[in-house]
Amino acid sequence: MMDRNIGLEAVRLTEAAAMASARLMGRGDEKGADQAAVDAMRKAFNALHIRGTIVIGEGERDEAPMLYIGEKVGRGAAEDPEVDIALDPLEGTTITATGGPNALSVIAMAEKGNLLNAPDTYMDKLAVGPSGAGAIDLRKSPMQNLRAIADKKGVYVEDLTVIILNRPRHEKLIAEIRAAGARIRLISDGDLSAGIAAAVIGTGVHAVMGSGGAPEGVITAAAIRCLNGYMLGRLVINKPELEERIARMGIRDKNRIYRAEDLAPGNQLIFAATGVTDGALLKGVRFFGEGTRTSSIVLTLMTGKVRFIESIHLSKKADVKVRFA
Asked: Of 18, 69, 143, 254, which has the most beta carbons under 10 Å away?
C-alpha cells in the first residue's frame, strides 16, 4: 500500500526541480533549464520512502544519464512500497527558456504495474470534464465531438473553448473547429496543464484536442483520473520503426483507443505538480532574497483529495527574516 504521506513527499521532488529550473527562466537555455530540473529531482529522490521504478522519464538508459526508463529510485528499504513513476522534471522547456506561462514540474505515481509504459511518440488526445464522459469518440469528427460536448453541458458549440497546441500538424483540426463555431486557445507548449484545466469546472476550458507526446499523455491521464475527468488517447504510429518498437513493448493494436483508466489504471494514483512559471493553474517560483516561494498541487485518487500547497523555503542565513507576502 502507498502511504498517503507519499503524496506530500512527492511535492518535495517537484518543488526541487521547479526551483532549480526557475533560476534559468527567460535566459534562452532550454537544455540548461531541463538539466537543472533533472539533477534536482534525482537528488531529491534519495530521501523518498519508496522502491520506485521509472516507467516514463527522460528517455532510454543510453539516452539519459539519470531519471531514465527502468531506473530504480527512492530509499529502497524492504518495508517501502513498490511504485511505478512517470515524470517530467520540466514540462515546458521552451516556455521556461522564453519566460512564458504554464511551465510545470510534474510527477505521477501508482502501485507497481499500473502506469502504461508509453512509447516516445505522438498521441492523439481528447480530454474533457466529467460531463463529457462517454459522449466523445476519437473516431468522430471534431464537429461531432463538439456537438456532443455542448449537448452534455447544455450549451451551444459557440460557447465552448478548446485548447490546441499551435503546431503545423494541427492546421486541419483548427480549421474544422473554427468551422464548427467553437473558440480556440492556441498554446505553444504545456498540453499537460491544459488537460488538467479541461477536467475542472470553472476554468473556461471545455476540451483539449490534437496530438502531443504519448508519455505526457500518461501523466495527464493520472491527473485527470484524480479529478474525475474523461480522456481518450490513440498512439500515432506512422513509421515502420515505431511499429517495431510498440511490438517489442507488447502493444499489439496500434489503433487502440485508450481511456484514462487504461493509461493510468492504478487505484492508488498520486499526482503532484509545482509551477515553474506563472500559469492558470499555479503560480511560478518566486525568489525574494530571504528564500523562495513555490505553489504546488497534489492529487490523490484513493482519498479524493486535492491539495494546493504554498511553501516558503527559507535561506540558511542566521539572520533570515520570515515573510508571508
From this structure: 18
